[in-house]
Amino acid sequence: MSKLLNRRRSAPWWQRHSRPMMAILAGIGAIETAYITITHWLGGNVVCPTTGCEQVLKSEYAQLFGIPLSLVGFGFYLAVAVVAVVLAPRQDKEQDFPWAWALFALTTAMLVSSGYFVYLMAVKIDAWCVYCITSAILSLCLWFLATFGRAWRDVGQLFTTALVVVLVALLGILAAYNGVEASAQAGSSSTQTAQGLQSPPPVTTRSGSAELALVQHLNKVGAREFGAYWCPHCHQQKQLFGQEASKKINYVECDPKGVNSQTQLCVQVGIKGYPTWEINGKLYPGVRTLDQLADLTNYQGPRNFINQVVKSQ
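^ thats the sequence. predicted structure below, dont judge the formating
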């Protein structure tokens, strides 16, 4: 018994406290991913110092099969926290028990997934999300603690397990994103001009006399819509107006890569997410139904709007 205690005391500090540290880090990750998921379900915008968060979290890469990646991340963080707090501490750290292997496999899969999403941000999305970077750092720290937070008896099996998990995770990720890549290439959500600037996708719905009358009223009272060419919710907003009416909206492009960009104006106004309507000096973030816009501007014209439901891109 004394030899075991002395061995534990001589172990590095991260081995002596690896399980509580993993629980804390996993808890932070669970809170972060829960916040992103709930905000997504409510249709809001996360609090972020840059526009990169919105561009990343609302891109086609931020969800798979209709499920937000943040919800998947929440599940992984919760699993790590449960294993680290409830199951692993009850076992002798001198032996390689199944729950130690489970922690190692979970954190390895998380590290691979986070690394691939960092690649997507750098190469495909061309924008950086503070929350995603934080999650990648948390995954790396959890993997370090799961791997080096104990003295493994069978290091060879550790490498074999890591190789299997990495291959399975990569194959699963590539297979899942195959459909996303195909849809992104087949129907790109934006078009590129000769100058290399990006423009929003075309509006496919039609406009009625009520939509045209509402747009005329919005312009008369000085209402403006702030958005970005890549923003799917901005496209949904224009789909509500239809082709003819959407062309008459007083629209302000905030992304510097967009056509007729007015990024500095967006900064001055204080735009935090897209789309955001400015009406009578007040900001109203998120997609608004035409009836809501009519109420906000005291519109007295016809309200037999054709497109009553927000259509997905």
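The domain at 2-186 is CATH 1.20.1440.130 (de novo design (two linked rop proteins)).
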